[in-house]
Amino acid sequence: MNCTNCNHLNLPQAAFCGECGMHFNTLKPNMEKNTSSLDNQITESMNYNQLVEMKSMNKLPKTTLLNIVQVINYLTILGILFMAFIFIVLASFFGDGSIIIFIIIATIILLLIMIYFIRGLNRYDNQTKIIYLILPVFQALLILIVIIDDFEISLFPSLIFPGIIIYALVYHKPTSDYFKL
């Protein structure tokens, strides 16, 4: 694909010109461009060099779907804390003190991992995104296997959160463009 600004030859899947940094409109010609999307307007109004500079200063705007992914992450943290509380209460009634220490250590490790993911996704760190995507893909595959094997149609709603995460980080163009910087 040739750049309309400097006529530089770029790869067909490139989001930005390798020479001048101009953002390419990669929408198909027969599709209408959604000009009301703030995420698209921000990405298309800046060139590659401006976006790289904003990324280095940790000033890139958060896209709407990335904010939704982060809300899911915070809900996961609340779920981890709630389950740890339940396990500690159960262990105090039925077990000894050593299991409580294990539960506390496991909870701290899980919380540190979630904080790493939240901070990495906020910085649009591509390595963090790839590692983080393993979890929802694996979760979605396990749910699909159970649905196919046991014909459990009631499990379809449990595909919502992994589906949103996968879509936001892989297929949502403004968000995925920021991770390519």
Task: Outline the structure in words.
The structure is a single chain. The protein is an all-alpha fold and 181 residues long. The chain has a domain of 116 residues. It has 7 helices and no strands. The longest helix has 31 residues.
Biggest sheet overview: none
Strand content: under 5%
Order of helices and strands: HHHHHHH
Rg for CA atoms = 21 Å
How would the global form be characterised? elongated
Regions with little confidence, pLDDT below 50 for 5+ residues: 26-36
The total count of strands amounts to 0
Task: Quickly count the helices.
Answer: 7
The average pLDDT score comes to 78
Instruction: Give the distance, in angstroms, between the N- and C-terminal Cα atoms.
Output: 19 Å
Structural class, by secondary structure, is mainly alpha
Helix content: 55-70%
Features:
181 residues; 0% strand; 7 helices; mainly alpha
